[in-house]
Design goal:
The protein is of the alpha+beta class. The chain has three helices and two strands; from the N terminus they run H-E-H-H-E. The protein is globular, with a radius of gyration of 14 Å.
């Protein structure tokens, strides 16, 4: 059985755009769930939560550590950008 890291390719962003109520969040969660079930490390967060966490980390001089923690995941799902 192959592991996800063997097939690692250059990271590419994916942005889901559409009107409210069209299933973007549902699709994002489904993609993250499938990736996790396939063995990838996945983190789901809201954009506002991520920004607040980064601002707090910067205030506490922990920004590099926080960014590194996010960098260890294979798939970062950020929801509610708008």
């Amino acid at each position: 059985m192959s592991t996800p890291s063997r097939h690692r390719k250059k990271a590419q962003p994916l942005c889901l755009i559409g009107d409210s109520g069209t299933g973007k969040s549902h699709l994002l969660i489904a993609l993250g769930t499938e990736a996790a079930m396939a063995g990838f490390r996945v983190k789901y967060t809201l954009a506002t939560k991520l920004v607040n966490e980064l601002v707090e980390a910067a205030d506490e001089k922990q920004l590099s550590k926080t960014i590194a923690r996010y960098g260890r995941v294979d798939l970062l799902c950020i929801d509610e950008l708008g």
